Amino acid sequence: MVFERKVLSMDTLKFHSKMRALLWVRVAFDECMVQERLWWLSPSKCRFDSKPVTLGWCYPPHGWLKFNISGMATEEAMGCGGVLRDEERNVRALFSGPCDAIDADLAKLGAIITALDVIIEIGYMGTGLIIVEIGSLVAYNWLLNKDRRPWLQQTTFADMERRLACVGEVAFSKAKQHGNEIAETLASAGISRRVMFKAWW
């Protein structure tokens, strides 16, 4: 930060540290099960006493990447988040931040658009097959059936279609129970953020 003359707020620095630590814990220790929603409040108190019974995250097919996304809403604010992983569960990109939406389902559409923007910014367009996995059945049905899409959100869907045309082959899927936890954690953290955080490697 000194050599590149960058300035980070304490909030952003804490977010970076907690996010990297969470990803490291998830990859390094399969037996260490944490409640990811509590991670942001108190990392020392979020460990499960016993291994929970979950269906968990499903690996994408060989050669595919999977982008789990989520949008959340409170009475005061909306947030969205997403994590891109490969077939070995390695995190390739993530985002978390505020979302301009009027409810949780529309926040999920904002999360899809942000995920597509990340794919374009990384330069993955047309280079691989990507699954975008979403937790909301309502939003998933909107993606599959254009007749069910809310009329007032036609501009949002048009923006999404333009990005999809740039990205290439994208398949949408509905996340299984407990299969979208990191994305939900990022969306929950995004509610309290003032700006969108994006990172990839």
From TrEMBL:
InterPro entries: RNase_H-like, RNaseH-like_sf, RNaseH_sf. SUPFAM superfamilies: Ribonuclease H-like (SSF53098). The keyword Isomerase does not apply. GO terms for molecular function: nucleic acid binding. Keywords: Membrane, Transmembrane, Transmembrane helix. The chain crosses the membrane at residues 122-143. This is RNase H type-1 domain-containing protein. It comes from Gossypium mustelinum (Cotton). The lineage of its organism: Eukaryota, Viridiplantae, Streptophyta, Embryophyta, Tracheophyta.
